[in-house]
Amino acid sequence: MLVTGATGRVGRLAIDQLLDAGVPVRALTHRSGTAVTLPAKVEVFTGDLTVPESLEPALSGAGAVFLVWTAPPQTAAAVVERLASHVRRVVFLSSPHQTPHPFFQQPNPMAVLHADIERLIAATGLESTILRPGMLASNTLAWWAPAIRTGKVVRWPYGAAETAPVDDRDVAAVAARTLYQDGYAGADYILTGPESLTQAAQVDVIGDALDRRLAFEEMTPDEFRTLSEGTAPSSVVDMLLAAWGAAVGQPAYITTAVADILGTAPRTFRQWAADHATAFTEGP
């Protein structure tokens, strides 16, 4: 099984899940130096999605691919064509752009890219499974950990917006299961956590895990835009603000897909926060 995005949040965890299941694993990394974080059992290949021919050594002899797209869109067609010439199955980490909930219906350039890749995969006839995680629980580390570590107030827009954070470990476990087990070809899964929580409530949950109260203060959208300058494209910032704004007063969209596939309930955000408490105080 070849895992792309092998050192990323979901890809790295999927590797562990595959190894635990006794599945031989190959990892595709953009830079050879990042391979030091991978288990010794993993066969590591260096490749670049923007250079489709560089994937040839990693694909030769592979049976399936976990595709995490981490590149501009220009080479997507050539990469998918190359996958189809080597493997019989692909599990694609997409986004919930088809989900009937206003949170996921905002203009989103990444969703457009994902939809295009899905069409390319479908056109090849590959056995494919599409995974659509909602808001990853680990996003909160990038958003709020810097303020929490320094004892500052957590300031954020749309504190009343509700999401159902899904644990990265559950997404990775689903990816691994659908990659090495039969029976998931043609399936399309929206992956969510088990409960709807406002963003302000998520901060409270993190505070409980740290055994201290965290202050939350509402930030205006314009303040968020200013704060995000230089750290995120304006299109992404606009998409997030539109999504959070649309989610206010709307319970988050929740599915049973994680439990249906794994046979165990998805981890709660409280479980995730407890397991990652030190990351909010000491860093990753």
Automatic annotation (TrEMBL):
<dbReference type="Pfam" id="PF13460">
    <property type="entry name" value="NAD_binding_10"/>
</dbReference>
<feature type="domain" description="NAD(P)-binding">
    <location>
        <begin position="5"/>
        <end position="179"/>
    </location>
</feature>
<protein>
    <submittedName>
        <fullName>NAD-dependent epimerase/dehydratase family protein</fullName>
    </submittedName>
</protein>
<dbReference type="InterPro" id="IPR036291">
    <property type="entry name" value="NAD(P)-bd_dom_sf"/>
</dbReference>
<dbReference type="InterPro" id="IPR016040">
    <property type="entry name" value="NAD(P)-bd_dom"/>
</dbReference>
<dbReference type="InterPro" id="IPR051604">
    <property type="entry name" value="Ergot_Alk_Oxidoreductase"/>
</dbReference>
